[in-house]
Amino acid sequence: MELEIKLIRDHCLADLNEVEELKALDNVRIKYLGKKGALTIALKGMGKLSSEERPIIGKLANEIREEIEQNITQQKQALEQKEMEAQIREEVIDVSLPGKKHLSGNLHPLTTTINELKEIFLGMGFTIEEGPEIEWTKYNFDYLNVPKEHSARDLQDTFYYKDDIVLRTQTSPVQVRVMQERKPPLRMISPGRVYRTDEVDATHSPVFHQMEGLVIDKGITMGDLKGTLDLFAKKLFGEQTKTKFRPHQFYFTEPSAEMDVTCFKCGGVGCKVCSNTGWIEVLGCGMVHPNVLKACGIDPDVYSGFAFGLGLDRIAITKYGITDLRLLFENDLRFLSQFK
Ligand code: 2U9
Questions:
Q1: Fewer beta carbons within 10 angstroms: which end of the chain, N or C?
Q2: Keyword Protein biosynthesis on this protein (predicted)?
């Protein structure tokens, strides 16, 4: 038994000399000192020893276990030191090296424009409403007083999913839904994506962004419309901006108009941005047509309202001097990173 346990010690110390890393060290400890370890197993034979031999072997066995455990502890400290030094070597930071440039994204010019408009109307007490992009034709056309045979309903203008389901061509259905759900007074804007079967070119895209607004209350007049939209123009393009309204025609408003603002580039004297007119067309607007009020369960003899609609993409490309609408959708980082 003495020889046997000394052999086990020698083998164990030999194995310990081979150890290169902490995990292996633990395996050696288990192999010799573990429950099924060689030394543990050998010492199970202690029972067969004579009463003279037992204390001697016992003492030797404890010495050997002690020696092995000491050796393991030293090795462990040495290996941990070695691993730490390796880690320090790996993690050494050469502070003279330039830092890694973290490319931070930035808001898309469309998002910046939408947020700017939202801030202006929130400041005027408007709510921001959203609604489905896939819409019933009754919300996209019928309730908006668009005649059954109007070309806007045609396939070449509108994406049809089914006879009575389309991709919305404007965000007006959102206002209709709110007018049917909530009673006046109402003051809201509805920004969002709209779809029309337009060919893609420098100024058209089958998917683009609009923002419409609506005010419904007792005694709302064209004066309220002009005052509100004039203030909006001054907040968006600058306090010196002037506005003018030209008569126009929409089915969902009567009377209707289009609003121009003095060119923010040349202040109205005429330049490339305003094609030398001094004015830039910004939006369409009008007093909500009584048929639309009725279709939404609002009595046109008690309430009146005004509405407006603008193309967000057009506002963004005008404000940022972007010459091609497609740049807004092509996700070219060289273009987008200009708006940091
Ligand atoms: C309701 C009643 C009336 C929304 C309006 C316009 C005028 C308008 C165009 C702007 C640019 C469409 O994308 S565009 O080509 N829109 O000029 N939109 S009044 O009128 C409404 C909306 C909802 C219930």
A1: C
A2: yes
